[in-house]
Write a structure and sequence with these properties.
- The structure holds two protein chains of two kinds.
- By secondary structure, chain A is mostly helical.
- Chain A has a single domain, classed as M75 peptidase, HXXE motif (A middle domain of Talin 1).
- In chain A, 62% of the residues lie in helices and 0% in strands.
- Chain A is built from 13 helices and no strands.
- In chain A, helix 3 packs antiparallel against helix 4, helix 9 runs antiparallel to helix 10 and helix 12 runs antiparallel to helix 13.
- By secondary structure, chain B is of the alpha+beta class.
- Chain B has three domains: 92 residues, no CATH class; 172 residues, YVTN repeat-like/Quinoprotein amine dehydrogenase (Methylamine Dehydrogenase, Chain H, 7 Propeller), CATH 2.130.10.10; 113 residues, Lipocalin (Beta Barrel), CATH 2.40.128.
- Chain B is built from seven helices and 29 strands.
- In chain B, strands 1-4-3-2-29 form a five-stranded antiparallel β-sheet, with no helix packed on it. In chain B, strands 5-6-7-8 form a four-stranded antiparallel β-sheet. A four-stranded antiparallel β-sheet of chain B has the order 9-10-11-12, with no helix packed on it.
- In chain B, helix 2 runs antiparallel to helix 3.
- The longest helix of chain B has 45 residues.
- Chain B is globular and about 95 Å long.
- Chain B starts with a helix and ends with a strand.
- The chains are: A mainly alpha, B alpha+beta.
- The interface between A and B is large, with 77 and 102 residues.
């Protein structure tokens, strides 16, 4: 063998080896997103439910949301959803405070006057339940939302806390009240004072006036903070380079549904495990109204015309329709249940839970992928 | 005719002959290369119908671009080495070769899908939601996975997982990074991926390409608690486990050199052991006994009122209890740990008591101290962290500590010299934390100190670099006011609780 033949063989092996080692993976020809090399396909992980299987096999096509559209939508969320929600809660708290000052001039308060206070409390509680769809920003910073709604209260601390406070401070002033613990403040504390007593004595009246006044101050502070910082809080100014605002907003809405399902329905009713805690507004016997307010807030946010236009921008209205239908069915079911959900038939309780599971799935598997954003991981269960 | 001219003429036939030889050799080389590539392509096409001859040219071009974009010779060599690894895997797949002789390998390739790029890995992270287009390949409802991340915070490889994962544990090297680079020592490193509690599985992957090497199942009446650590020599893996009969905490010991077979088991001297780390003395295990009792296949807390969390130091060889410390409040669940090079343990607390109670959530401890030492919080407002610390990471060189708290949506950095909070940064759903650079890069000149920092992963798909620097104005005033700058890289996935630096 001539030396050039041997050299050619060696060079051939080397150059072929180089080309083969650097070859672009064949899967690249299928997907442009990653330079991928498929090693094996997972044939074992399958979903047992036909519904899930169908969902997972259907390819979700994300809509193209331009930075300008994102900015417009987030500005709309801030101005037309978030700010009105806080403004309404502050307004209802103010109204309760005014009503308490008027009716409490002569204690004890009972009968129609007490009923009026209770009715206004329920409007306030519903207003705050709607505002809880915003689980980021000043309302949740440093757990300040505990001072507005100490829930879930698994040990019944609100009950003993409020009665102990009133007993110890029969002439409670707003200034004294401001420094008190979160367990005696906010909506549940007011519920305790207004619904656990057949009439309000002077001490209980002083408490209702102080607590509603303090609550108004907190809610107005939150509203003011949003007015001043909405651009930053919803990352509206970052629309050009990221989808942080969209992510934050839709994960917040998802969180409301999941928290409602878990803390306000499943756990107190013991649907999937041992019962713990109590239904929202249990002392008032108005759990349905609270769940309904949350559901209504979600419904408005999800069927919002600006959002619907974005979802339908690729001539595909399935996601918006599916969500709208699921929420409407849940609302209808809820309307047929008693005011106190603990008195509802067990099957209906389970059906409500299942409906909310469907809504959760639609948000996670259809809405969020369609918007091209991501479901955050559930970090609330202690890992 | 001059002497020179005669010499030139006599050289002409020789030069012509050399040219002919070169031409012949080149032609033979080209034919030989084409034949070999053609044979390779023929077999490759059988496995990948989409394969094309252009892939060879495109691949070569990509590698050349990677080499050109690299800085310095060592990264170039690394890129080439990783390209060769990629080629080896491709070859193995194309010809149905087993990756190794392990009997479970075929099962592993059936349940995991790996995709990869030819770039060195700097961090490994769990993923709670993989990109949808990839997930659709495997019908995986939850899209759980693990990813390798390079120094530019780009995804190098991604491997699907059959369940949600938790801790990511990289096998230590017994040679330094600089030695590896200088001598071009090639040492394969494992990364252990723990299933989320109460998982009965952990997986061992190759850090360089994400290929699953082993899937380890818990013993009968045991499940894992989501965390593990290697001995400093990388030979043994220690895993927090639960005895599902007695509900007592256990530490399983696995031999990394023997397919991760369980070789011993110790008591954790507590209930619900979560994270555990090695002490720099290389002899002592440090264990966070969270104190929360759970049953098999359940996450329900059974003893929140009576829980007794503790930090435990064990002799790693025989499991002897060396020291045990309990926090001031019995519901301060000790969950996450990081080890300073000086032996100080950094502790992240998850408070299980009533939400309105304000307790310190970031503590430190050194062997011999009778109690924990809390770091300080402005106005003692620990509720800023919403009772939940997800990860702690320490930069020993610069005495900095980073903690993450997804519920309050922020990452915070402490100066361990003063034990004070430098600042916190809003990062919704953030949890994973690791040092940004394992390379100290500290010179004699203070001004040349490379900005320090951490990498934070979050559920919205961001990998954020947090860098701490001293404000120039404060330097002029003789102060040392520090500032945190952020820089995020967005990915279309949700990163899970933990990420780990190589």
């Amino acid at each position: 063998m001539k030396i050039n033949h041997a050299l050619a063989m060696a060079l051939s092996a080397l150059s072929a080896g180089l080309l083969i080692s650097c070859v672009k993976p064949a899967d690249d020809n299928k997907s442009a997103e990653v330079d991928s090399q498929e090693v094996a396909k997972d044939n074992t992980a399958t979903d047992s439910s036909a519904e899930s299987s169908k969902e997972s096999t259907e390819q979700i096509v994300a809509v193209d949301i331009s930075p300008e559209t994102q900015k417009t939508y987030l500005t709309h969320v801030a101005e037309d959803i978030v700010l009105p929600a806080y403004a309404n809660a502050a307004k209802q708290s103010d109204l309760l405070n005014e009503l308490a000052q008027r009716h409490c001039q002569q204690a004890p308060v009972s009968g129609a006057e007490l009923q009026a206070l209770r009715a206004q409390w329920l409007v306030l509680a519903q207003a705050w339940s709607s505002a809880e769809m915003i689980n980021f920003g000043p309302a949740t910073a440093s757990m300040s939302n505990l001072y507005i709604n100490y829930y879930p209260d698994e040990r019944g601390l609100v009950h003993s806390g409020v009665s102990d406070l009133i007993a110890a401070n029969p002439t409670l002033t707003p200034e004294q009240f401001a420094g008190e613990s979160a367990i005696v403040q906010g909506v549940p504390g007011l519920e305790e004072a207004l619904f656990a007593n057949e009439s309000l004595n002077a001490g209980q009246c002083a408490y209702v006036i102080s607590a509603s006044g303090a609550l108004s101050t907190r809610l107005k502070d939150i509203e003011k903070n949003w007015q001043q910082n909405a651009t930053e809080l919803l990352a509206i100014d970052k629309s050009a380079e990221s989808d942080q605002g969209l992510n934050q907003w839709f994960n917040s809405l998802l969180s409301l549904v999941e928290t409602m399902k878990s803390n306000a329905i499943d756990q107190p009713l013991g649907l999937t495990g041992k019962a713990k805690g109590h239904l929202p507004a249990a002392t008032a016997g108005q759990s349905r109204a609270i769940i309904n307010a949350k559901l209504d807030a979600i419904n408005k946010a999800m069927t919002d015309p600006v959002l619907t236009a974005i979802l339908n921008s690729n001539d595909e209205s399935t996601v918006a329709n599916n969500l709208s239908t699921a929420l409407a069915e849940t609302t209808t079911l809820l309307a047929q249940m008693p005011e106190d959900l603990s008195a509802a038939d067990k099957d209906d309780q389970q059906a409500l839970y299942d409906h909310l599971t469907t809504v959760t799935r639609l948000i996670k598997r259809e809405l969020i992928p369609t918007l091209g954003i991501r479901v955050g991981f559930n970090s609330t269960d202690g890992d | 005719m001059s002497e020179d001219e005669r010499h030139d003429r006599s050289d002409e036939p020789k030069a012509s002959s050399i040219s002919r030889e070169l031409l012949t050799t080149s032609m033979l080389t080209a034919v030989g290369t084409a034949a070999l590539v053609g044979i390779h392509h023929h077999y490759r096409k059988q496995q990948h119908p989409d394969a094309s001859l252009q892939d060879y040219v495109a691949g070569m071009r990509a590698q050349l671009q990677a080499l050109q974009s690299g800085v310095g010779s060592t990264p170039n060599l690394k890129s080439f080495r990783y390209a060769c690894q990629q080629a080896a895997v491709t070859w193995q797949q194309a010809y149905h070769q087993a990756i190794d002789d392990e009997s479970n390998v075929l099962d592993l390739t059936a349940v995991h899908t790996t995709t990869m790029l030819a770039r060195p890995v700097r961090w490994v992270s769990g993923v709670a939601s993989m990109p949808k287009n990839n997930a659709s390949l495997n019908q995986n409802e939850h899209d759980f996975g693990v990813v390798g991340i390079d120094a530019d915070r780009q995804i190098v490889w991604q491997t699907t997982m059959p369940e949600r994962v938790h801790d990511i544990v990289v096998q230590p090297t017994n040679v330094s990074e600089s030695q590896v680079q200088d001598s071009n020592v090639d040492q394969r490193r494992d990364v252990v991926v723990m299933g989320r509690r109460p998982s009965e599985k952990f997986w061992v992957l190759d850090t360089s390409n994400g290929q699953v090497q082993h899937a380890i199942k818990a013993d009968l009446h045991r499940h894992f608690y989501g965390h593990a650590c290697y001995s400093l020599d990388g030979k043994l893996l220690y895993v927090t486990e639960n005895d599902t009969v007695s509900l007592a905490g256990k530490i399983g010991v696995y031999d990394a050199n023997n397919a991760y077979k369980k070789v011993a088991e110790f008591n954790s001297y507590g209930i619900g052991p979560h994270e555990l780390i090695m002490h720099p003395d290389s002899e002592t295990l440090v264990i966070a006994n969270g104190g929360i009792k759970t049953e098999q296949a359940s996450r329900e807390e059974l003893n929140l009122d009576t829980m007794r969390p503790s930090l435990v130091y064990l002799n790693r060889h025989d499991g002897a209890l060396l020291e045990q410390v309990t926090p001031e409040h019995n519901q301060m669940s000790i969950r996450h740990l990081a080890m300073h090079n000086d032996g100080t343990v950094m502790i992240g607390i998850q408070f299980q008591g009533e939400k309105h109670i304000n307790v310190p959530l970031v503590l430190t401890h050194q062997r011999g101290d009778v109690s924990f030492a809390p770091l300080t919080m402005p106005n003692n407002q620990w509720q800023r962290f919403h009772q939940y610390i997800a990860s702690v990471a320490v930069d020993s060189d610069r005495n900095l500590l980073c903690v993450t708290t997804p519920i309050s949506g922020c990452a915070a950095i402490y100066d361990l010299h003063t034990r004070e909070l430098i600042d916190d940064v809003s990062l919704p759903d953030c949890a994973g934390a690791s040092v940004l650079s394992s390379n100290s890069a500290i010179t004699n000149n203070v001004d040349d100190i490379k900005p320090s920092g951490f990498i934070i992963s979050d559920g919205q798909g961001q990998l954020t670099a947090l860098r701490v620097s001293v404000l120039p104005d404060s330097k002029l005033n003789g102060k040392d006011d520090k500032h945190i700058s952020t820089d995020s890289q967005l990915h279309r996935m949700s990163f899970d609780n933990h990420l780990q630096a190589l």
